[in-house]
Amino acid sequence: MEILEKRIEETKVAYAQYKGSYSKIPAHLQEVGQLVIDDGLKMTGMVYGAYFNSPDEVPENELEYEIGFSFDGDLKLQEGMLGFKEIPEHTVLAAIHKGPYTEVGPVIQAIAKYADENGYDIVGPVTEVYLNDPSEVSAEELLTEVRFPVIKMG
């Protein structure tokens, strides 16, 4: 697995925050995608999940995460459960996982270890960017870019 440092451009996103089991993520992706479509926003291709804690740290019902889609257009005020924000330009350590979403854990651990061993501070939640659609490819063909926002120390 190749771990790269890369710059991520400023991105406008529409998102919703959730608490509970990761097993509900596919339904949440559909829900947020439909809200974005219903709002008339022009999606620009990035579909992501940001994860604020870990199943290793908290019970399943306390897992906190955000599901979002990038879009082109003006930022708006929150509408119902859909929020809007600009993610500023930032540096990440990233690697691609090929396979089921449920098997991404070792990639997350490898990037965290790489960051620690190479003088990076992790400065935000792990984010998974979903590069293809589970309704179009098999679980074994799913591509996920795992990103940790970082600052190089020293």
Automatic annotation (TrEMBL):
Residues 1-151 form the AraC effector-binding domain. InterPro entries: AraC_E-bd, GyrI-like, Reg_factor_effector_dom_sf, SmbC-like. This is Transcriptional activator ligand binding domain protein. The lineage of its organism: Archaea, Methanobacteriati, Methanobacteriota, Methanomada group, Methanobacteria.
